[in-house]
């Protein structure tokens, strides 16, 4: 099996997406160390989209046509996923998308290896209302994921009597938040839900938020995207005490997570772990199991087999498998930032993934 991987290895997203690639390559190493797939080593072709969404589709074409990959594991932002989907279809391939996202999509050639909003956001909003307050201010990057998630928060907020007192969306990579902070001061929320994506924006916002006199005790931030990779760019004084929801945190206590973290450091030299990285790791292991079960590398055969396999070694704390709608199973946790990472302070009962707010749409790959 030859796996194509599309990630930003240069540009603004490079640190985050290199860490996701490390998760995928660790899985390749583990599989090859015990004999490979169907008796042969897994091989990899990597395309650097240079943090440019427009290059992601070109990467799919190159990997499928020039490098003859069997399947693709890649993408981080929802914008990159949307850009890759037409090329995946045109090349009759499969995309394993590694990270949690906004849902509202099904595609017969995409397997969603991260959580849908109902798996991580629904319980989080209830927890915020009970634990932090009901006057909520939303800040996010101005593209698909933060916008759709903001709409979901408004819907869910009605259930919990949450008052959305304000929301602001800023360009991707924005680093000046004076207007947002002035608006927060005027609106006087109990909690700020942060859907900013990217280290530049999150670091700038948290730092300027702290400089404006806010602390986690006076006005907590409840994030959906501020990973340990982002915390690494901030001082503990700035980040400690704020919250994040996730299907994985590095401080999960389990044998599988301990083994994963050791191997990631030993094999890839990577010390930081996060949910999207684990999603890529799980994706490669699931592909291996599917190929072993089907005895085939044909995308349609792999698609059928992916719905029948379960990877028990997921660091998340639950076995990893797909539902018929191509969405995957996950636990959900709330973490509180401390000393550059997150302590787990709440765990929710797992929910089955629902792509749409009304119903799930079953999909199948055309042969």
Helices and strands, with pairings:
Layout: E1 2-7, H1 14-33, E2 43-48, H2 53-66, E3 71-74, H3 78-90, E4 95-97, E5 110-112, H4 117-120, H5 122-131, E6 135-141, H6 144-159, E7 163-170, H7 178-187, E8 191-195, H8 199-211, E9 221-223, H9 228-231, H10 236-239, E10 243-246, H11 255-268, H12 275-294, H13 299-306, E11 310-311, E12 320-321, E13 332-338, E14 341-348
Parallel strand pairs: 1-2, 1-3, 3-4, 4-5, 6-7, 6-8, 8-9, 9-10
Antiparallel strand pairs: 10-13, 11-12, 13-14
Helix pairs in contact: 1-11, 1-12, 2-3, 5-6, 12-13
| Gap between N and C termini | 19 Å
- Shape call: globular
Q: What's the main sheet like?
A: 7 strands, mixed
Strand fraction equals 15-25%
Separate helix tally: 13
Which radius of gyration do the C-alpha atoms yield? 20 Å
Segments where pLDDT lies below 50 for 5+ residues? 359-367
* Lateral strand order in the biggest sheet: 7-6-8-9-10-13-14
- String of helices and strands: EHEHEHEEHHEHEHEHEHHEHHHEEEE
Query: Structural class of the helix and strand makeup?
Result: alpha/beta
**Oligomer classification:** single chain
Q: Compute the average pLDDT.
A: 95
Helix content range of the residues, please?
40-55%
Number of strands: 14
Question: Could you explain the architecture of this structure?
Answer:
It is a single chain. Helix content is 41%, strand content 19%. Helix 1 (14-33) runs parallel beside helix 12 and helix 12 packs across helix 13 (299-306). The strands form three sheets. Strands 7-6-8-9-10-13-14 form a seven-stranded mixed β-sheet, with helices on both faces. Strands 2-1-3-4-5 form a five-stranded parallel β-sheet, sandwiched between helices. The protein has a two-stranded antiparallel sheet with strand order 11-12. With 367 residues, the chain is α/β, with parallel strands linked by helices. The model is unreliable at 359-367 (pLDDT under 50).
